[in-house]
Amino acid sequence: MAKSVTQEFVKGLWNEIPPFRLVLGLCPTLAVTKSVENGIGMGLATTFVLVCSNILVSMMRKVIPPKVRIAAFIIIIATFVTVVELVMQAFTYPLFLTLGIFIPLIVVNCIVLGRAEAFAYKNGIMASIADGLGMGVGFTISLASLGAVREVLGSGTLLGKPIFGAGFEPFSFLVEAPGAFVALGLMLCLMNLCGKK
Amino acid sequence: MGDMIKMVVVLTVLSAFSGGLLAAIRDQTKDKIELQQLQFVKGPAIRAIFQGASNDPIASRFKIKDGDVERNFFVGIFDAKSPAVAFETFGKGYGGDVGLMVGVSMDDGKMIGVGVTTHSETPGMGAKAKDDPKYVNQFKGSSTEEPIKVTNDGGKINAIGGATITSRAICAAATEASEVYKRLKPQIEEQMKAFIK
After folding, report:
1. Which of A54, B19, B87, B124 could be disulfide-bonded to A128 (CB atoms 3.0-4.6 Å)?
2. Could you report the predicted ipTM of this complex, rounded to two decimals?
3. Is residue B56 within 8 Å of residue B76, measured between CB atoms?
4. What total number of domains does chain A contain?
């Protein structure tokens, strides 16, 4: 029954890649993926919170009484989110300004709470680290790829640098909110097609 | 009963630990965050005012206590003998406080330039005060001896079309800046000595 640490890590990258397979954490997925940079920033922040909260929840899983486990998870997660928020303000202020409200909102990100409840509360520390890391990296890859699609087609740039000639007319619909839904839908469709065989 | 106590103890310990950790991190990052905010929020206005200065105005700053508030002052040195000082004041705008960075020459007490830092005015109307330098350029050379007003109120400043309240707010902030300058002039001169070599 017990899977290896590698398997726990790898499952987050494809089989259970958060926004596309589990369809969790859609709020930041839709809102911040206007560019690759935002996507990666958000993904890394979430990864940090995921790994740290998984470690702590797993360490304390024998101590936390089941009746107050959700409250305890929220305290742990909120603490790490605030850490991320302060550190981002201190070192990557422009990124903090663009991500804005979505950094504190990691607290209520279903992926983080979901992994604490469904995985870390029931498994050992090493497995929980692997799970958090895998989920986080998967989330980062998803946000970055969605961000890449929207940035390249929507504003004709990649990581802020123009990649097309002057003749390229950006498909600006994609950087707006409805474009996020359409792009996400198409990527989900692509994922399902690839996973079908 | 034992269960109850355990719940309370676990949550209390967890919260206390989180609080301690966050306080420590906040202490560590406080200065860095303040610097970042200066760089990115006030930096553009300060740099515009001190265009051509031979020093880094954001690095050359000091604080003076003015009643209950502590004000940040930024020093710009153009040539060896003519320093200028910039500081921020606020006026009540249409959507809240409008922050204004005011640069005053220490030689003749005239304004060398002003720039809007933070505001929540209507985009396309009051927000022009920040986006369009035409309005704030009128303040160049204003004396700190008399209150600054828009033409409607008997002053010399042409208001922004459709944004009288914002224009008035900026005039009020500039007038307040004049008063602050007059009130704190001896202290400013005292502090300035450290920056002039």
Report:
1. A54
2. 0.72
3. no
4. 1
